[in-house]
Amino acid sequence: MKTFLDWSAYDTYGIGDAYSGIPAKGGNYAKAVAVCMHSRDCQKTGKGVMCPSYRITGDRAHSTEARVAAFKAALNEGENAEAFADPRLDEAMDLCVSCKACKKECPSAVDMTLIKTEYLAQRHEIKGAPLRTRLFGGVPEWTGRHRGPLRYAIRLRNAFAPAARLAEKWLGITARRPLPELAAKPFAPHRSAAKGERGAVILFVDTFACHFDPHIAQAATEVLERAGYCVTMATPAPTDAEPDRPLCCGRTYLTTGMVEKARFEARRVLAAFQDAIAAKTPIVGLEPSCLLSLRDELYSLGLGPEVGDLGKQLYLFEEFLVREHQNNGLRLDLRALDLPKALLHGHCHQKAFGVMKATRKLLSWIPGFSYDIVESSCCGMAGSFGLEAEHYDASMRMAELSLLPAVRAAPEETPIIANGFSCRHQIEHGSGRQARHIALLIRDALA
């Protein structure tokens, strides 16, 4: 069976293990599915993220274990790739938010996020990718090539209720929440004025930081320069087919099953960082899902050993600063902020990849600063999930489990910290409160 992702990492899986039945068809992809050992950790509702859909429904059918069972049945009973058109898979995967928690919290490390990407790619091959999927997945292209018209269209849709209702009827984009609006101007790369006593770093400004929240990229630049680094912006290689369009991690394409487009973006990234890989220059990112996708899911695109070399140089903003503090003696001069105790919400990927420790460490550098962590699962936005009309209610139920009640219960002046673009959008929509990226907080604390 032809697969769109590289599943060779699972080649030796199942040899000598007590696997609970590898499907007859599907090769290494089937082995990835069969990793599940039925521990049922995905059906727990205590601390942790997994599994957001089970948490809101209490129905085993919406757990990772049940999704595995549906894939096993489809692969065993279906005819080759046609198995992916099985309606049982549509039902099983409907509420999966690709949070990556199962890879971290499941004892068998079931990677349902990538399993879902392959499923969607196969389904698109059979039925074609719906227009809404192409719109949401193609955000990097729309913002890079048609920024002006897109910004106008979103502003019109948000301001004019009949336009929002029309978009829901034609495209399935919910009319019950506003779409994120593009900033007046995108982030403008510039040459660092800092001498860079501590060396050079490359700032990877993702699609969302570039076009929606350029002030976050600006704040991160200021902090890195003050810390003693010469900051350069990640830009396309001179040979790039689209040199004027910013680099993109390709995650929006992966989560919507548009694998070839994700692979195209990944090749652009590898070409752009060729010299940086050779020089071992650190690459710093701001959006958890973007940076951590480059570090993890790029392997699934079968692009060679360079992917591993790149991964060793990729850091989230807080990871980089804490690493430099521990390994290279970085001391950032910060002042106390006149702020009450804050609330910290971690993005699913920050939790799945163990980045929250670095987040907490960096916040501890601010004199007298205190905060509480919101014990939450997925915020419910999950990229485009919360914008889909049929998923709006599920999205809000995920947010209402603990995140939104905690935010509403906090005094009005309480700072809310959330590094995820989708998380901030969900918090603002559900509570009217604006959350901030950690880079803004550290910039404000610069002495």
TrEMBL record:
GO terms for molecular function: 4 iron, 4 sulfur cluster binding; metal ion binding; oxidoreductase activity. The keyword Iron applies. The keyword Heme does not apply. Signal peptide: none annotated. Keywords: 4Fe-4S, Iron, Iron-sulfur, Metal-binding, Repeat. It comes from the Bacteria. InterPro entries: 4Fe4S_Fe-S-bd (IPR017896), 4Fe4S_Fe_S_CS (IPR017900), Cys_rich_dom (IPR004017), Helical_ferredxn (IPR009051). Residues 85-115 form the 4Fe-4S ferredoxin-type domain. Pfam families: CCG, Fer4_8. PROSITE patterns: 4FE4S_FER_1, 4FE4S_FER_2. PANTHER family: ANAEROBIC GLYCEROL-3-PHOSPHATE DEHYDROGENASE SUBUNIT C, GLYCOLATE OXIDASE IRON-SULFUR SUBUNIT. This is (Fe-S)-binding protein. The lineage of its organism: Bacteria, Pseudomonadati, Pseudomonadota, Alphaproteobacteria, Hyphomicrobiales.
